[in-house]
Design a protein that fits this description.
elongated, alpha+beta, 166 residues, four-stranded antiparallel β-sheet
Length: 166
């Protein structure tokens, strides 16, 4: 099954912005009745609703291509998307409980197939080895090798000096 992105023009008056960015910022606007508008239960965490003017000079078809990675956008769908004014509602198929049946508040502009990851590769099983045992903690101060030799040498040197100077 190929996932599809539905691009819908919002005919109702709304000043709501509900995008991945606004959700990341922690904004939680009161959304319009999307389930009523679409005729299907909606996962609101998957949809985007915003005024097209938020894109600035970027065309809506370019935004859809960059944000949702569709397999392709037919030229006539791109023209209709780019002609939109007002608010747009972007709904991935995975966000719906069933096929959408937009009411008067929405107009379906286009439905484009989204690219799907290829998870069909056969990979060899990885060898499982137990982790190495943890290193023993250092409880004693590190032993300085050779320090006793220096002390003995210094004491001998002092004894020789004392004997010679008598």
């Amino acid at each position: 099954m190929t996932d599809t992105l539905h691009i819908l023009a919002v005919n109702a008056v709304t000043g709501v912005r509900h995008t991945h960015l606004t959700r990341a910022r922690g904004e939680a606007p009161v959304l319009p009745p999307l389930t009523e508008w679409l005729g299907a239960e909606v996962d609101e965490a998957e949809v985007e609703l915003f005024p097209v003017t938020d894109l600035g000079e970027m065309a809506l078809s370019d935004y859809v291509a960059m944000a949702f990675a569709p397999e392709s956008i037919p030229a006539q769908d791109a023209r209709r998307m780019n002609a939109l004014k007002g608010h747009v509602l972007l709904v991935p198929e995975r966000a719906l409980s069933e096929e959408p049946a937009p009411g008067a508040a929405l107009t379906l502009i286009a439905s484009v197939p989204l690219a799907r990851p290829d998870h069909g590769g056969n990979l060899p099983k990885a060898a499982v080895t137990p982790p190495p045992p943890p290193a023993a903690p250092l409880t004693d101060k590190p032993r300085r090798s050779g320090s006793a030799t220096w002390v003995v040498g210094a004491v001998l040197l002092l004894l020789i000096l004392v004997v010679l100077l008598r």
